Amino acid sequence: MQSSWRIFFALLCVLLVLATGTIQAVHSHPVGDISHADCALCVTAHVAVEVAQPPVTLAVASVVSAIEVFDPPTRAKTFFTFALYTRPPPVDSVLA
């Protein structure tokens, strides 16, 4: 007997959740109609979205100034030689 009451209560809860979810999903008012200000469903939906503080606006100012660039004197270009080459094979293959 207790088992059937638990199943009935569980099914009732599931049906209530489905019914209220469906009602909230299909709930609407005509566009431009402000008479829904006292609608409990609309008030509940918009309370969570209410902004607590106004957004902070940042003042942005561009700063322009002249910059002096230090140009170091250039060195004279030298010819680069690569000294890390491999040596040629020995003349006598016996010594290799």
In short:
With 96 residues, this protein is mostly helical. 34% of the residues lie in helices and 0% in strands.
List the main descriptive attributes of the protein structure presented here.
single chain, 96 residues, 34% helix, 2 helices, mainly alpha
- As a whole number of angstroms, the C-alpha radius of gyration is 42 Å
| Unreliable runs | none
Overall average residue pLDDT: 77
Sheet-strand content, in percent, reads: under 5%
Strand segment count: 0
Order of helices and strands: HH
Helix content: 25-40%
Estimated structural class: mainly alpha
How far apart are the first and last residues' alpha carbons, in Å? 102 Å
For the report, how would you describe the main beta sheet? Answer: none
What is the count of DSSP helices, taking H or I runs of 4+ residues?
2
Spatial shape = elongated
Keywords: Signal
Describe this structure in words.
This protein has helices at 2-26, 40-47. The protein has 96 residues and is mostly helical. It starts with a helix and ends in a 49-residue tail after the last helix. The chain has a domain at 1-27. The chain has 2 helices and no strands. Keywords: Signal.
Helices and strands, with pairings:
Layout lengths: L1 H25 L13 H8 L49
Keywords: Signal
